[in-house]
Write a structure and sequence with these properties.
The protein is mainly alpha-helical. The protein has 2 domains: 233 residues, Rhomboid-like fold, CATH 1.20.1540; 65 residues, no CATH class. The chain has a two-stranded antiparallel sheet with strand order 1-2. Strands 3-4 form a two-stranded antiparallel ribbon. Helix 2 runs antiparallel to helix 5, helix 6 crosses helix 7 and helix 6 crosses helix 9. It starts with a strand and ends with a helix. About 6% of the residues have low confidence.
Length: 323
């Protein structure tokens, strides 16, 4: 529904928001890039008043090979994936992005994931443009060269290829059981059969972009320039954001919460935290150098009576090292 040039949800967007919040709530590490992509696509679709003056209309960003090449219109090339034709179109794509984004960003890290999404977006749009122009040269009867399309699905098809590239499992694609590594091709065919109005070349360009990305990643071992850019930007904004978050939401420590996660993280980094005095010790030590407690909390170096309580042992250690 459009009101004054802005869209109002018919009920599907609150369900998307509820599903997103529930998925993020159960995650120990919240993927920020995936959340940012979800928010960007949704805000562009809703067009709130504070963005109305800066957001181009959908008529200005349709992906159209003819207009992009004729006018060198990079706005259509880069912005068309973030626009959607309707609420169902947006929600379907965002649910797919949520599922794929959480898995990929959690496994590869936010900086690597952000650089991958940017690369896949540019590659999928470029391949679609080349396919459209190539079919025109062969006098293909369907006018893909003048076709109008928007939506994030091309990038999602590319992400599906990356996600399933090394998988030997099977998955269901609209009720059909197929090998996971071929799921993108099966979805391409099934969607085209049952929803013929969608952009076939856009989806095909996404699949080919995913394949090309994986090939380049395997054959090229040098540094990713996009990853360097995202890492530099992240480093600039990380400290002030961490400071603000620390002021607004101070961390609370408990034996079952943050401290437990911190101990597991320290063990991975070659450091273990003493269960008695919480001193961080080198991984090569088996006994705490501050209080003499073993890693398991029972191997004490002090020759004390076995009938002393644990609190009394701790008190004596603290007294010993503070004197």
């Amino acid at each position: 529904m459009d009101i004054g040039g802005r869209r109002v949800s018919r009920g599907m967007l609150p369900l998307l928001a509820l599903h997103t919040v529930s998925e993020y709530y159960r995650l120990e590490r919240k993927p920020p890039v995936t959340a940012g992509l979800l928010a960007a696509n949704t805000l562009i679709y809703l067009r709130p008043a504070f963005l109305e003056s800066v957001l181009p209309s959908i008529n200005e960003v349709w992906f159209n090979a003819h207009l992009i090449l004729k006018h060198r219109d990079l706005k259509r090339f880069f912005l068309s994936p973030f626009y959607h034709m309707g609420e169902s179109h947006l929600v379907y794509n965002m649910l797919s992005l949520l599922w794929k984004g959480i898995q990929l960003e959690t496994s590869m890290g936010s900086i690597e994931f952000a650089s991958m999404v940017a690369t896949l977006l540019a590659m999928s749009q470029g391949i679609t443009l080349l396919l459209s122009k190539s079919l025109l040269l062969f006098d293909y009867e369907k006018a893909y060269y003048s076709e109008y399309a928007v939506g994030f699905s091309g990038v999602l098809f590319a992400m599906k290829v990356v996600l399933n590239a090394q998988s030997d499992d099977y998955t269901f694609v609209h009720g059909l059981l197929v090998p996971s590594r071929h799921a993108a091709w099966a979805e391409l065919i099934l969607i085209q059969m049952f929803v013929p109005g969608v952009s076939f070349l856009g989806h095909l360009g996404g699949i080919l972009a995913g394949i090309l990305y994986m090939h380049l990643k395997r054959s090229y071992s040098g540094p990713n320039p996009l990853r360097y850019i995202f890492s530099s930007v992240s480093g600039v904004i990380k400290w002030p954001l961490s400071f603000i978050c620390g002021m607004l939401w101070p961390r609370r420590y408990s034996s079952r919460g943050t401290v437990g996660r911190e101990m597991r993280r320290n063990l991975v980094n070659g450091v273990w935290r003493c269960p008695a005095c919480t001193f961080d010790n080198s991984g090569v030590l088996s006994v705490c150098e501050m209080c003499g407690t073993g890693r398991d909390g029972t191997d004490f170096s002090l020759n004390l009576q076995s009938d002393l309580s644990l609190d009394e042992l701790r008190r004596r250690r603290i007294q010993r090292f503070s004197s």
